[in-house]
Amino acid sequence: MKTYKVAILGATGAVGMEMKKILEERNFPVGELKLLASSRSAGTVQKFKGEDITVEEARNEAFKGVDIVLGAAENDIAEKFAPAIVDAGAVFVDNSSAFRLDPKVPLIVPEVNSADVRNHSGIISNPNCSTIITVVAVNALNSISPIKSMIASTYQAVSGAGAGGPIELSAQVEALAKGEKPVSKVFTHQIAYNLIPQIGGHSTDGYTSEEMKLQNEGRKIMHLPDMDVSCTCVRVPVFRSHSISVLVRTADPISINQARAVIEAAPGCKLVDDLDAHVYPMPLDTSDQDLVYVGRIRPDLTDPCGLNIWCCGDQVRKGAATNAVQIAELLL
């Protein structure tokens, strides 16, 4: 079997660490793995397939001879190193938002638009975590009738804010149990026993940058340039796995039975929908695995062409690391 030289840019962060884990889980044909991070992390050692790998400082010359680079760094780092990665002849699968809306860069969810990967010129973007989970859940409906619009609310776990999110939630719960004042550093407000209805900075018309991603990225991924999306993003005191409530409006009515059938058969989906038995997608059940659980499928009572859907997925895995590795698998 042919093997590949793979690098992870941002290897010591939460998503980078998960990428390494998933490369091993999925038995990706890695001949050599390079772990790249900032100078602060250089020299630390991580395990991969039982072997010690020393983290290197990310430099332009580090990409020489690399076939695939999995990006798990912020926008500025992705933009800084993208030219060197492409010049080295590698393909950059980037998890940041730096290139997602660039018309020359494919934005890929393998279960939805895998054929678009052929159009890359050295850079492929990994979508936003909530976008990935949502489009995997709803895309099958397009086979019955095109999606015209969506109204969505996301309930995003603290780990979506990075490794510090779960630490801060745990510390605040412990402090409150002791009668102490909780300290907020990662989040702008106390997250323990609270909801924060803002993720991302101000974008337009009172929407945040995070809220606009579902429309802007969803249109590109599902090839629905006229689809309108109104989204509200909420940070919730859950450690892992994002949940999304979405009202999908299609050109023509879709029955509940039709919707259940196509979603159950859709790649990457698991239908979990039995209200009488108290069975529906929940963060605890969807953490640390790669399927998007879909349930609470019911008609919209305000529009005959509307369906209400509830879905959950692990945003660190399917919403980031696993999706990136699946894109790399398409390149093979």
How would you describe this protein?
The protein is α/β, with parallel strands linked by helices and 332 residues long. It has two domains: 136 residues, 3-Layer(aba) Sandwich (Rossmann fold), CATH 3.40.50; 184 residues, Dihydrodipicolinate Reductase, domain 2. It contains nine helices and 16 strands. The strands form four sheets. A six-stranded parallel sheet has the order 5-2-1-6-7-8, with helices on both faces. The protein has a six-stranded mixed sheet with strand order 12-9-13-16-15-14. Strands 3-4 form a two-stranded antiparallel sheet. α3 links the parallel β7 and β8. The protein is globular. The mean pLDDT is 97.
